[in-house]
């Protein structure tokens, strides 16, 4: 389905595009199942968005207050090479799991979250920034967000770059939260480690070094290091 045909349908499921933005290109695929009584239907399955353009949305300007995104320039239109997610739609809102997207101007995003019946966003995300930043990363080392980023980078690196940690890769991994509403999203630095439980759920069933069941110690469990970093 062309994404321009989908745009008029989105408000009906509680998704309003950011103010001034519109879907100008792309295609959507979906494999969905509907269950439950007619007055309480639940729709669940997998959705993909490919070759899309969100015109009038400057992601770089939205995230510039988060340490680590300094210098990110995405332009006034956001090109989305690929976005895939598992989705559950019910009366209480939408749930997105295994949310993954590739954007040439940034890199990639992974995470999970919800949109409730009042259009409130609650997402935990990690950005893997591979795009060149014009002002450098700056500011994340030595901060609480940096402590989270170090562990997050090592864990995701084990999956995304063939077992390499962040120190072995040129990409920067930045955990953050998305709050606000679909029409006015707010991007917030994750300085409290809230993203770690999400990563455990997203990556726990994969063969990631350090996540071996039954093993103890921080050398076997990189998530455990987060607690120490915030207790220091």
**What best-fitting shape do the alpha-carbon axes yield?**
globular
Number of domains: 1
Strand arrangement, major sheet: 1-2-3-4-5-6-7-8
Strand content: 35-45%
Biggest beta-sheet profile: 8 strands, antiparallel
**SS summary, helix count:** 5
- What would the average pLDDT be, to the nearest integer? 76
End-to-end C-alpha gap: 52 Å
Stretches where pLDDT is under 50 for at least 5 consecutive residues are: 135-152, 155-169, 205-232
Strand elements, count? 8
Query: Percent range for helical residues?
Result: 10-25%
List the secondary-structure elements in sequence, H or E. Answer: HEEHEEEEHEEHH
- What is the rounded Rg? 18 Å
Helix/strand structural class: alpha+beta
Please provide a written account of the structure.
Helix content is 19%, strand content 38%. It starts with a helix and ends with a helix. Strands 1-2-3-4-5-6-7-8 form an eight-stranded antiparallel sheet. The longest helix has 17 residues, at 144-160. It is globular. The chain is an alpha+beta fold. It has one domain. α3 packs antiparallel against α5. Mean pLDDT is 76; it is low at 135-152, 155-169 and 205-232. The protein has helices spanning 3-7, 59-63, 144-160, 195-203, 224-231, and strands spanning 22-35, 42-55, 77-90, 93-103, 107-116, 121-129, 172-181, 184-189.
């Amino acid at each position: 389905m062309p994404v321009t045909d989908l745009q008029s349908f989105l408000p009906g499921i509680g998704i309003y595009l950011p103010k001034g933005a519109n879907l100008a290109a792309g295609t959507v695929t979906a494999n969905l199942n509907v269950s439950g009584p007619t007055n309480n239907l639940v729709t669940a399955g997998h959705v993909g968005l490919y070759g899309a353009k969100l015109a009038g949305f400057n992601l770089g300007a939205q995230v510039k207050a988060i340490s680590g995104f300094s210098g990110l320039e995405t332009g006034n239109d956001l090109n989305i090479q690929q976005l895939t997610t598992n989705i559950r739609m019910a009366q209480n809102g939408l749930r997105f799991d295994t949310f993954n997207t590739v954007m040439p101007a940034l890199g990639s995003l992974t995470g999970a979250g919800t949109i409730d019946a009042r259009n409130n966003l609650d997402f935990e995300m990690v950005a893997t920034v591979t795009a060149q930043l014009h002002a450098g990363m700056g500011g994340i080392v030595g901060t609480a967000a940096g402590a989270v980023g170090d562990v997050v980078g090592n864990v995701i690196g084990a999956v995304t770059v063939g077992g390499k940690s962040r120190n072995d890769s040129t990409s920067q991994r930045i955990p953050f939260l998305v709050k606000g509403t679909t029409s006015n999203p707010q991007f917030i630095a994750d300085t409290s480690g809230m993203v770690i439980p999400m990563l455990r759920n997203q990556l726990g069933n994969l063969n990631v070094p350090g996540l071996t069941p039954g093993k103890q110690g921080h050398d076997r469990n990189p998530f455990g290091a987060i607690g120490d970093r915030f207790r220091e």
